[in-house]
Fold these 4 entries.
Entry 1:
Amino acid sequence: MEALHYEEHYTKKDYLRWEGEWELIEGHPYAMSPAPSVTHQRVSLKIAMQLENGIASHGCEDCETVQDVDYEISDDTIVRPDVLLLCKPVDERVDRTPEIIFEIVSQSTVRRDETVKMELYRREGVGYYGLVYPKRRTVKLYRLCESGNYVKVDDFRDEKYIFSLSRCTIPFDFSKIWRR
């Protein structure tokens, strides 16, 4: 007898009742890693600070950097990027597409960050996606092109880059995220 194929499909309603830290991607739950390491937190803060400084000094009044908040894409997809930059008004919920997302990659999230989330962010139209590898001190940066696909900009360690957003530009010095 052929086994019946059954697959659970969860929604935001379920997600809000769960204990612990989770992400929900197309109805499938993903457990978050244990609490982020000190290095993870340090790098995340340095990225956010640089983006905030760029916003303040380059006329990006409508933009805001947030860390570790739920990005509600749909009723069955809620993710928690490490750092994101939005150039649209935000209240308490992030339910609009960010301009930039950085994910700090760990051994337990590498596959999800490099494949599942990359595809999700591409489909949602996130302009820039940065995969941060603290142990290698490298950031793989991707830019969404007109065809709707991500194109790798480069692997950054100590270089500088200028993010070209819809309303402004933000300079970024990758060497600063590795400093203590």
Entry 2:
Amino acid sequence: MKRIVCFGCILFVTLGTTIPVLAQNLIIYPAKGQSQEQMEKDKFDCYSWAKQQTGVDPMVASAASQQPAGSQGSTVRGAARGAAVGAGIGAIAGDAGKGAAVGAAFGGLRGHRQRREAEQVQQQQVSQTNQRISEYNRAYGACLEAKGYTVK
């Protein structure tokens, strides 16, 4: 039983010190002389409260915002599909080579447009994530200030 309690203490201290600090990069000063142990407990309590109030877990939100952007593979695939369709149309018209070239050009343009649209969607998602983390930071800071800390 002691091992479980000690593990719980270590887990509590670890979560209390890493999650809030990594999430916001805030400077927190114990304005009422709180001990380091009390400050860690308060930080964890405020992390939990702010997460519950805003529905935002900054650790999950920041990991989601760091996903890689789309690759150029969509342009290549689009060109290949366009070439295949163009070759088929060209074969019907009597010049498969010309049809493939035209189809590849249109397919490549479509793939480029799709990639550009995907990048715009990702930028919007990053912006929304940043806005939600900002809302979380306000709640987290308000909680700490209510507990007697100066937050910058």
Entry 3:
Amino acid sequence: MTTPSRDRSPHRIRITRQAVLVDEALAGSTDFRTAQDLYAQLRAAGARIGQTTVYRHLQLLADQGAVDVIRTAQGESAYRSCAGTEHHHHLICRCCSRTVELAGPEVERWLSQVTAKAGFTDISHTLEILGTCSSCTR
């Protein structure tokens, strides 16, 4: 994976065989996956890759803004390839983990007002809204 346009990190991602394996595993799923899940998938497929390498590459991707990151109910970070390059939020089903990306311009306007009033600048944030999707409420 090359350095994405939303580069927030001084570290460039080295394109190694292991990095490509992690990138392909992420690209092959629309669900959020923990580093442990990805590591287990790669090892089951016969990949020679270390757990630390998976964690490190995912962190680099997150720092670069190339993946979405959420916290699971268990407190773990879960990752997914970004569908787009624009800033967005997530609506996540508690039952099946189905995720919908939301633009949320109203949230952005509100956040700008609140942070400016408080005298803060250089703001970053994430917003995850949890609920139950229509498929799971049936």
Entry 4:
Amino acid sequence: MTRIVHLTHSRDLRTGGVIEAVLRLDESLRAKGISSAISDDPQIPGGDATHFIVHGLWQWPGLWAWKRFKTTGCPYIVFPHGMMDPWFKKTFPLKHLKKQAYWLWRQGGIMRHAHAVCFTTEEERRLARGTFWPSRYREVVTGLGVGSPPGDDKGQKADFIGAFPELSERRILLYLGRMHPKKGLDMLLRSFLGEERNDEALVLAGPVEKTDPFTRKLLRSTHGREKEVVWTGMLEGDLKWGALRAADALVLPSHQENYGMVVAEALSVGTPVLLTDKVNLWREVKQARVGLVAKDDQAGIDGLVSDWRAGRHHEVSKGEACIRCFEENLHIASCADRVIELLDESSQTTGGKRA
């Protein structure tokens, strides 16, 4: 029997998309009858596992799986989750040099001995090439995604508006995620606050760490404009889904975004998305006509906000098309099927080993 253990550095939901991806893939595999578990503890990752899925680079999971493979032949696959994106190389050159050194010493070997290195989009795979040297590993695009949305539309909307009654009868532009410099929120706030509209609200939903310098900067920029910019804190469960359903559009103005789980979540409930071309799902969004895409600079974000205010996103994005795009391209079940194929394939190789 196939017994999978996902190895991840952290299970803290506040850290963003990696753990969300792990949870969704774990759920989908179990729904298909596969024994699947998650470990964030290098001391107890699962002795009876037949396969490991390594999530992320540079931390203990990859090294642990590689050592297990060397001693027992137990196969593993690796999801980099955007950690090979050249944006990090350009933005943090000194950190990149340290990572390149680790790549030469260990990470490159971890990738080479993996049965597959799994990219969630074709864009992620393309961007990863050449970021580190030497680059020898087996590339596979598996997709990613989320499951079908839980709960009911009306009830979740009512819960959300009940928690934030100031948003009643207002058009909502929703950002849902971490407050991090790479997310482009400073540009978004400049665009949104450049014009005062009483019938609109920008909702910033995510953990608010008031000791963080960037978050403090964002909070200062919205002082006195609390009616227009609503900080909800981190939303989970029905409140999160209620926000996605109540929003007129989701916005993700990122400078770098490997996948954007929240994009799949928004589309699953029929909510169109506004993205930069640094969100790796932008091609899928543009091709399916389920949102608007712009450059990740101030002019690009100004254009997205202006187009949203003019309702242009609804000219190209219909709720039915959003849901269809999700079901055909962004449902986690498709990713789970591909992962199962890879793991079955790895079991058939001699001793589970790759040269």
